[in-house]
From TrEMBL:
Residues 1-27 are annotated as: Disordered. This is DUF4233 domain-containing protein. InterPro entries: DUF4233. The chain crosses the membrane at residues 29-49, 61-81, 101-122. Pfam families: DUF4233 (PF14017). Keywords: Membrane, Transmembrane, Transmembrane helix.
């Protein structure tokens, strides 16, 4: 029989901290999550124009322009997720989508949905990069 094994490193020897998330590159994974979320948002916004016009009724030209501008902004921010400002810009985009609900109620509904998705992405980012 052998005695208990002491698994502590000898004094003065520092062990590298284990990766908490288990990901090879947590920063890259989180950037991919943010970029994917914004790309999906852009796609949904553009694909929603016609159904909103048909089912939702009066969708003004201003509302369509706002949708297209928000979709383009989402694609631009998604492409720039390496930049330090990108997560803040994504949060601002969610607020702008909520504000576009003043143009049409369905845009507010989309804003609520994507604000919740973005909040979850921010939560995952915080947990992984902690």
């Amino acid at each position: 029989m052998t005695g208990p094994v002491d698994e502590r490193p000898p004094d003065g020897v520092e062990q590298p901290e284990p990766r908490r998330s288990g990901l090879r590159d947590p920063d890259k994974a989180v950037r991919g999550l943010g970029a994917g979320t914004l790309a999906l948002e852009a796609l949904v916004l553009l694909l929603a124009i016609q159904p909103i016009r048909v089912v939702g009724g009066d969708l003004s030209g201003t509302a369509v322009a706002a949708i297209v501008a928000l979709a383009v902004a989402c694609v631009v921010v998604a492409a720039r997720m390496k930049a330090a400002w990108a997560w803040n810009a994504g949060t601002v985009l969610q607020g702008l989508l909520l504000l576009s609900g003043l143009l049409h109620w369905s845009l507010f509904a989309l804003g609520v949905i994507f604000a919740l998705v973005w909040a979850y992405a921010l939560h995952v980012r915080r947990v992984i990069l902690r």
